[in-house]
Amino acid sequence: MIRNQWYVVLESYEVGNKPIGVTRLGEKMVFWRDSSGKVSAAVDRCPHRGVALSTGVIEHGYLQCPFHGFEYDATGKCVLVPANGRNGVIPSALRLNSYPTYEAHGLIWLWWGHTSSQELPTPEFFDNLDDSFFYGSAHDPWDAHYSRVIENQLDVVHLPFIHRNTIGRGNRTLVDGPVVEWKGDKMLYTYVFNRVDDGTPPLKPADLSPKNSSSVHLEFIFPNLWQNYISENVRVFAAFVPVDETHSLLYLRFYQNFMRLPLLGKLVARLAMPSNLYITHEDRRVVITQQPKVSGLKIGEILIQGDLPIIEYRKKRAALQALEE
Ligand code: FES
Ligand SMILES: [Fe+2]
Question: pTM score, two decimals?
Answer without folding.
Answer: 0.95
